[in-house]
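Re: weekly structure request thread

Next one in the queue (318 aa):
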Amino acid sequence: MATAHPQNVHADDTRFEKDFPSYGINGSAMNGNATGVDDGSGDTLNRMRTAGSVNISSELFEKLYLSPEHKVKGELRKTFGNPTPIALVGFLLSLTPLSCDLMGWRGAGGNGAASTGVFFFFGGLLMILGSIGEWIIGNTFPFVVFGTFGAFWLAFGGTLVPSFNAYGAYVTDPEVAATNMGNPGNPAGLEVPAFNASFAFFMVFMGLICFIFLICSLRTNIVFFVIFLTLICAFGCLAGAYFNLALAYGNPTNLAAARRASRCIVAGGAFCFVASLAGWWIFLAIMLASLDFPIQIPVGDLSSMIKGASDKKKVSEV
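Done, posted below.
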């Protein structure tokens, strides 16, 4: 059960309690002292706080939830588990293999087509579930971020599925369409300039939303900031790659555009790989903190360095 804070705690030491009740052999809750009798030394209260609850500082809260600590109604954060790690798993197991594909490591390629199922069931499913979990416990920023990228992976995976006919719809020549025997997803559509130019705009505006996330992440931590910074660069490179592919397919003699597209794809993969490394770091940090592991790794908390508007208002009112 939740225990009250001592009355001598400073007013500016805001903390969030996460309950981990301890039970005796008979199933009744224990508060550190097996007899429940205060020995008069003051240690009973400390044992109660250790056995009955774990105090989460503002810095630890930000590390666990990727969001500055804020008050919400109800006890949902004490009821449900932290949804942040499962969303990160979906993100990392989609982005990391894709980055290796884009860079062509070990002969990989195909813009991630081999990982279409991963994009749906890891990137899409797990990130949407994590987003819903963040929404339930009242964490707006990670809810929006995870929901956005969950939808991105579903959209990206859907584009690669032939039955969606995303690229096959651009095949308008009857003779070329006949080569696919009337089936959707004619691969000839991948070489149509209009498809590549259109898909490039998707990358452009994903970069734009990552820029907004980048600004907001200044209230979270350095690692989260690095993720969005490198993703902006990655989406910019991929947008450039598709725009150059449109030029190259529109004019087969434009070899310079084809070379630029190839370099942009590799550069985009490299930026994605750096983003995934930062993601693996923050995932490890969250898992260690969730288990109260004796070894903790830093993420560069920024929530205490860049004060929120409400914090500044409180200071001005004092």
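Confidence is low (pLDDT under 50) at residues 1-41, 44-54. Residues 92 and 302 are 23 Å apart (CA to CA).
Next request, please.
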